[in-house]
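dumping the sequnces here before i forget
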Amino acid sequence: MKRHLVSAADLTRDDALLILDTAEELAQLSGRAVKKLPTLRGRTVVNLFFEDSTRTKTSFEVAEKRLSADVINFSAKGSSVSKGESLKDTALTLQAMGADAVVIRHHASGAPARLAQSDWLHGSVINAGDGTHEHPTQALLDAFTMRRHLNPGLGQDLAGRRVTIVGDVLHSRVARSNVHLLTTLGAQVTFVAPPTLLPIGIENWPCEISYSLDSVLPKTDALMMLRVQRERMNAAFFPTEREYSRRYGLDGTRMAQLPGHAIVMHPGPMVRGMEITAEVADSPRCTVVEQVANGVSVRMAVLYLLLGGATLNDARTDSVETAQ
Amino acid sequence: MTTHQDSTPRPPHQVLDGTDIARVVTRIAHEIVERAKGAEDVVLLGIHTRGVHLARRLHGRLAQITGREIPLGTLDITMYRDDLRLKPARALEHTEIPPGGIDGKLVILVDDVLFSGRTIRAALDALNDIGRPRAVQLAVLVDRGHRELPIRADYVGKNLPTSLREAVQVRLSDSDGVDAVLVGDRDYTARSSQALASQPSEPHLPE
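..and the predicted 3d for all of it:
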């Protein structure tokens, strides 16, 4: 494992499986009376959120607390960032306070990579979503959920499983991270979206593209619906919401075309009536709530593997230097 | 320049063979039944890696003696180790608590070698988070001394006085293909079984 988790593309197959297997062990913890491990005692983790987030931030916070880390929440609103402080100065401040890891969500793509490559911080940088770039822990929890349903067992990957990702791929960091990770794990990814919502250069991604949802459904093991990100839309990408919903939304009739074992996923937050109907969202095949629970286990695994052993902030031993 | 005879590492010599280990396991099983008055509420928990194999063997013997199935589980103490920060993060092993839990039970921890006592300290911490046993006891195949914590075993297969320069190696057929306990110089025996268990040298671990 590297020292940072910035992109799902940085993870080798072995890294990814190690995270998933560790998460599988840590998932047991949620069934216990004492849901806490002493592993990260004395480590300080800063949640640096420049963008609104409920589930990712809460999920990281729960994971950090279950591992006994000291958690500091730092949100852009009401902090010095709103007074005009730069990312660099914020990072230097956190370094001076002795942060062992920074979980960062930023509206600018590449902000976590900038932090990780700089020498502003000695701690690990974990990307919790940057602009329209990547969201690696979401991809890991999606892969974890898929593996549990489609190929359960420690050490198993997703070889040959077909994953269809539908919706606003252009603005989706979840789609970007997922295509990297799922390909690493051997799955075949198909994107379904209106041409206006596919990014330029997608033909170079390791995936297939389709413009028709109905033709892909029977060949799908896991169907992931993406939210249409209205807050990032500054142009007309499709005529009306109703038209989008009719062509690319998932309703009960479409769900019935999926193979019996297939699952329906959504990274949240769902917009019921837009990309997914209430009937599908409430059906037992929809894994949205399970994905949230798995998110805690996966983030615990990432935090443990990055911070649980020797880190740069400890004595700078050779083994750590080469571990990068 | 004089060369001391003991500066050349001795090859490891065997102190227990397969039949010795089988006898020891049988004896400990009888001791458990005797001291726990029939082993009514006993739960066996093997500590990874070789403690798990020993616990399974002990479980088999106890089933023969008592005619009942004794609950058997495994315990991974990685997250509770006090030397986590000395090495890169290690992969976790599987912790499996028997369905009946450990609350109010007599938990017997099973490990291969009792040395510094730090593994057992970590195991006690782990148990503390899992439940509240009536009592906790410790069974080990070999007690090699050199405790660094006030911990002692209740059932000992063999007391093996060693020097710190020596390494004790437990081999069990489940993981090493053969049953044996070897003692040799630390330099000669590449690693003791304890060092093996705590060193992330397996290929599936991050380097």
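The interface with chain B takes residues 1, 14-15, 18, 21-22, 25-26, 28, 32-34, 36-39, 154, 304-311, 314, 319-320, 322-323 of chain A (CB under 8 Å).
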